[in-house]
Amino acid sequence: MSKEFDVVVIGAGPGGYIAAIRAAQLGKTVACIEKWKNPAGALKLGGTCLNVGCIPSKALLASSEEFENASHHLADHGISVENVQVDISKMMSRKDGIVEKMTKGIEFLFRKNKITWLKGHGKFTGKTDAGVQIEVSGEGTDGASSEVVTAKNVIIATGSKARHLPGIPVDNKLIADNEGALSFDTAPKKLAVIGAGVIGLELGSVWRRLGADVTVLEALPEFLGAADQALSKEAAKQFKKQGLDIHVGVKVGEVKTSENGVTIAYTDKDGNAQTLEADRLIVSVGRVPNTDNLGLESIGLKANERGFIDVDDHCATAVPNVYAIGDVVRGPMLAHKAEDEGVMVAEVIDGQKPHIDYNCVPWVIYTEPEIAWVGKTEQQLKAEGREIKTGQFPFMANGRALGINKADGFVKMIADAKTDELLGVHIISANASDLIAEAVVAMEFKAASEDIGRICHPHPSLSEVMREAALAVDKRALNM
Predict the structure, then answer these.
(1) Would you kindly state where each structural domain of the chain is located, as residue ranges?
(2) Is the whole model's pTM more than 0.85, yes or no?
(3) Which Pfam families does the protein's record reference (predicted)?
């Protein structure tokens, strides 16, 4: 007799573990299948995001920024510091400690909510009158090599893995993906990065601050093409000033490794053959969904040609009582999007009527300055033929930004020309990841730019720039 659960979640990343917790809060019997092992061989919850993604990368970004501030910016405050040193191994230990604390925290939440952690790989084996059958192999829960469990409802939350390029073997030593790039033992003198997306820019920034000469090669003709053009233009200017050497419109050719490092042949945007030599190479060209070896066909399901599982607006698949969320379905591969989908599906299973407005899912790049936006870009709205009005306000006119020596960047707001409804908010600044939340709230409530302009903001604070940008939509900013 197999174990039976109301809900079985496959994958314990941000989408999976949040889905499991919400389902348990709603009184369901819940199990979550997870096979992740850390380098020491210990099974851990949290998935890619917590173990080798969002959390460790932000820890290293914070540490490297502290080093850069001490090395180059404390003098602006009248503080003299000489012979600043960095201990990479201690920095990595701090990062690992944060990850360990967070994974232990999820284990605690599982115990608190009486969620069963099924340790191993989950694979569908078929359906019965009792529900969906899933084989858990690897560790087992009782020391056995495998067991089969029955689920009335299943949530597939298996996440994604780094996309690798053909002919460029990743060993996570000389050539690394996001996982290896978070664990370098020393800062390379010369670092090459293929891909100027979120991961490439964040990890490139970490190692540049720690002493690497960083060159970024991007295949797309535009830098940060998904962002508003005003944002991408400002970001390119700031990164160039910092020393990130970014080339767009390139075509990468043969990559060779040797004892001395890596040699990358590529063609630049003008069609000229170029060669880049580096000590190490980071490949960050996107991610692909983890939908292989799930046994989807055994329950009448299959991934599409791109490897994703097709779902409706409530993340339901074509098979009744089987749902999929996060990086394995359409939409941006963002941890917070996966979390919201996990909560939504748990509530759908409970008979509720939840809804996600995907236009109100914010994007963040944790560089310095940070880049964040929600809603549509000016170029998207113009392509739709929408009549709009915009307001922009710089942080250089903000007292708090000047006081903390973070005066680069601006807030740009876009509103409907007739109704004044907010259609998009775009920020490049310190703490943009926090500031964008106000815009998300406003857009969820269908606010007008005037609404933000009339709300009292604390002075002095970075948030005042949000208000000034809103006022600028009607050309009445107070401090410009």
Answers:
(1) 3-161+288-356, 175-285, 361-473
(2) yes
(3) Pyr_redox_2 (PF07992), Pyr_redox_dim (PF02852)
